[in-house]
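Sequence design from tokenized structure. All designs in this work follow the same two-part layout: the structure record, then the generated sequence. An example of the structure record is given first.
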């Protein structure tokens, strides 16, 4: 019997994951807007780690679509093109159509209460970036209520890029924080009324409005 190759010890990747989390939050908070450089030396100094975890973290964020790396420019926060925005909009529309249908058949009163609580907090959002986090929290709750694990995973796979979409949307106009609470209040009302057709119409119109605002800037 031939001896099998021994397993190598697993790499400890906890630090790189933590660094990725810190950089991700900084991007979402607007500290690094789309197109901003992410220099390894500067990040290592600010986070007080070596360049190895920084490099691993940037590679992880690149797989998520938040970061792009070019050999002559290094790493930068992804800037969405018109094609990127259109693809994200159309894909999200398809996912959300199914999410709304599943919500109407699987959501509980507690799920509706969660959405209403998020909308209540939207009215107290102090900044556009606070509103962005609540916007995503609302849609996270919709997908969780579908009780469809693969649908939720599909949403999670594009979630970081959707945040880039919303960051670009914030930069494209000044009405984001004023507009979002009323739109989401209407979405909750449609879900509570248990009218799938009307809910789907409102959700898709909600996505279309955000896309149109962003598309106008390209």
């Amino acid at each position: 019997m031939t001896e099998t190759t021994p397993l190598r010890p697993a790499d400890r990747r906890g630090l790189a994951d933590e660094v990725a989390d810190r950089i991700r939050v900084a991007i979402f908070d607007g500290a690094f807007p789309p197109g901003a450089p992410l220099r390894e030396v500067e990040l290592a100094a600010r986070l007080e780690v070596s360049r190895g975890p920084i490099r691993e973290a940037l590679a992880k964020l690149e797989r998520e679509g938040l970061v792009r790396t070019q050999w002559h420019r290094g790493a930068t926060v992804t800037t969405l093109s018109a094609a990127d925005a259109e693809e994200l909009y159309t894909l999200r529309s398809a996912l959300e159509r199914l999410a709304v249908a599943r919500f109407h058949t699987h959501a509980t009163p507690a799920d509706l209460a969660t959405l209403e609580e998020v909308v209540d907090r939207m009215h107290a959002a102090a900044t556009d970036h606070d509103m962005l986090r609540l916007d995503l929290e609302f849609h996270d709750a919709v997908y969780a209520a579908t009780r469809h694990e693969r649908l939720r995973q599909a949403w999670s796979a594009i979630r970081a890029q959707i945040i880039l979409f919303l960051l670009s949307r914030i930069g494209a106009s000044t009405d984001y924080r004023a507009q979002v609470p009323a739109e989401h209040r209407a979405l909750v009302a449609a879900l509570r009324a248990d009218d799938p057709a009307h809910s789907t119409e409102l959700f898709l119109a909600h996505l279309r409005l955000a896309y149109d605002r962003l598309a106008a800037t390209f």
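Residues 82-106 form the longest helix (25 residues). We note this feature because it recurs in several other targets discussed in the main text.
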